[in-house]
């Protein structure tokens, strides 16, 4: 069965997951995390990709990003992947592949899923038992949005500004949202959509996306009714 081409549409936020090969570590030291962050920052700027949220884990990372062009995200991820593998292999005296194949990603409907995706990303270290609270983890964008530090990598999506009229109000509202967690069904939808490559949104959003690309954006073509059992 042929691989599904990536869905990369300019101007739409995309949830991206890149895993280590066979779940192996991709970062084992502060220098590793710093190097990966620097590569993401450099190449996001080079290829005009806005990074709205991120988390770097020991064996995978998540990004929430909006590319300016259809080619921007693949170019950015290819550059990050190749350069980081060289760095990691040289630093740790190893050779061979580091990544579990190509990165996974899909387009999400911002009005419904963008803020939930940001919270989902921030809470990844909590779900994995690494920290008790999202603000305790240093390798995510949560500190920026919670007002704990300024992160030059982060480019807030316009929807973030709707959380309040002042920086303090937005930070407090966002921290409260993250503290409240992400519903299990939304968490599952965010994970499965990124891994499968199918767009995540309501029927109107998916139908509109389908008019913008020849690549199928959902398991069922837009507008086709589900089959019924006899």
From TrEMBL:
Q: Name the source's superkingdom.
A: Bacteria
List the molecular function annotations (GO) for this entry: DNA binding; transposase activity
**Cited SMART domains:** Y1_Tnp
Listed under GO biological process in this entry are:
DNA transposition
SUPFAM superfamilies named among the record's database cross-references:
Transposase IS200-like
One Pfam match:
Y1_Tnp
* Residue ranges of domain Transposase IS200-like in the record: 9-124
- What protein is this chain from? Transposase IS200-like domain-containing protein
- Source organism of this protein record: Polaromonas eurypsychrophila
């Amino acid at each position: 069965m042929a691989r599904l081409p990536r869905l990369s549409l300019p101007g739409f936020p995309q949830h991206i997951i890149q895993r280590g090969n066979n779940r192996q570590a991709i970062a084992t030291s502060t220098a590793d995390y710093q190097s990966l962050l620097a590569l993401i920052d450099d190449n996001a700027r080079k290829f005009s990709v806005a990074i709205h949220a991120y988390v770097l884990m020991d064996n995978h990372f998540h990004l929430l990003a909006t590319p300016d062009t259809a080619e921007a995200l693949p170019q950015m991820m290819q550059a990050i992947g190749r350069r980081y593998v060289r760095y990691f292999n040289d630093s740790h005296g190893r050779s061979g592949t580091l990544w579990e194949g190509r990165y996974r990603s899909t387009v999400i409907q911002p009005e419904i899923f963008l803020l939930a995706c940001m919270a989902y990303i921030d809470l990844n270290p909590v779900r994995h038992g690494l920290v008790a609270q999202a603000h305790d983890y240093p390798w995510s964008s949560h500190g920026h949005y919670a007002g704990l530090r300024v992160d030059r990598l982060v480019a807030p999506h316009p929807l973030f500004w709707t959380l309040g009229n002042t920086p303090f109000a937005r930070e407090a509202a966002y921290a409260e949202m993250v503290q409240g967690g992400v519903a299990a069904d939304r968490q599952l939808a965010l994970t499965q959509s990124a891994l499968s490559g199918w767009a995540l949104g309501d029927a109107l959003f998916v139908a509109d996306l389908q008019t913008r690309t020849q690549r199928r954006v959902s398991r069922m073509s837009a507008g086709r009714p589900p089959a019924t059992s006899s």
